UniProtKB/TrEMBL annotation:
<dbReference type="GO" id="GO:0005737">
    <property type="term" value="C:cytoplasm"/>
</dbReference>
<dbReference type="GO" id="GO:0003755">
    <property type="term" value="F:peptidyl-prolyl cis-trans isomerase activity"/>
</dbReference>
<dbReference type="InterPro" id="IPR039663">
    <property type="entry name" value="AIP/AIPL1/TTC9"/>
</dbReference>
<feature type="region of interest" description="Disordered">
    <location>
        <begin position="269"/>
        <end position="296"/>
    </location>
</feature>
<keyword id="KW-0802">TPR repeat</keyword>
<dbReference type="InterPro" id="IPR011990">
    <property type="entry name" value="TPR-like_helical_dom_sf"/>
</dbReference>
<feature type="compositionally biased region" description="Basic and acidic residues">
    <location>
        <begin position="271"/>
        <end position="296"/>
    </location>
</feature>
<keyword id="KW-0677">Repeat</keyword>
<dbReference type="InterPro" id="IPR046357">
    <property type="entry name" value="PPIase_dom_sf"/>
</dbReference>
<dbReference type="Pfam" id="PF23322">
    <property type="entry name" value="PPIase_AIP"/>
</dbReference>
<dbReference type="InterPro" id="IPR056277">
    <property type="entry name" value="PPIase_AIP"/>
</dbReference>
<feature type="domain" description="AIP/AIPL N-terminal FKBP-type PPIase">
    <location>
        <begin position="26"/>
        <end position="91"/>
    </location>
</feature>
<protein>
    <submittedName>
        <fullName>Gelsolin-related protein of 125 kDa-like</fullName>
    </submittedName>
</protein>
<keyword id="KW-0963">Cytoplasm</keyword>
Amino acid sequence: MEETYLLNYPGVKKKILAGGKGPMPHFPPGTKLVFHFQTLLDNFERTVIDDSRKAKAKVPMEIFVGKMFKMEVWETLLTSMRIGEVSEFWCDAVVGDPFSYKRESWIMDKDEKMKEVPSLHLQGNALVRQGHFREAAKKYQEAVVLLRIVLSKEMPGDEDYIAVDRLITPLVLNYCQCMLELEEYYEVLEHTSDLIHKHKDCVKAYYKRAKAHAAVWNEKEAKRDFNMVAHLDITLAPLVHKELRFLADRLKEKYWEEKEKYWNCLEQEEKEGKKEEEEKEDEEGKKEKDGERGVL
């Protein structure tokens, strides 16, 4: 057995129980990691408090590298492993990440996690009303992480799975609204697209994605999503019409700004060209006069 400390992550100790195969894999953002795990208390009895093989779903857990709403320490542990490797990790209670769930949540049972989510949701809403969008986004993110941990233990398709999954959607939408306010438009595009992939009729996700597309000048995509909003909810047609008019006005304004910028650049180039030509003519005139003096 091999024992080591994970670099750049104090408070975590690793013991390799069975070596994996091949070289250390490369884990670019978006890589899906599939694994089974046990969580044990560091006491004399080695009390098991979580086991993916004994969970209701009995399926491996999955996380995506670099994604928001991730379990920070899990990503660190898993990306230190080879394919097929079996390892044991000790994590100090202080190990955690301010952008992830609360440090003590790893020992919370399902009921405790579910009770924590409404509180985080309300805290996020209160911060939004105060205009503290970055802090609110963190609260929504913490709640989503807790729910996804719970979701990983449920059987896909079961009533409990569906009920937990439904709680995630409004939290992600609230997070996306915060990102719109913070002008983090590509964050919005990523997470609304994930929602739409799972829920084809999520009107709010289409609307927020349309706003993000419009903000980054993706005209075709913005129009497509705005029209989908009106298609899914006819009562929102006036709002969509207003948004499309606003987008058209912004595009027109952008067109004239770019055109003016182009003509200004062209005019500047012409001025510089004339100046160079005049300097060249002056230089040639000077050479001719110097030549005439030499003949005399």
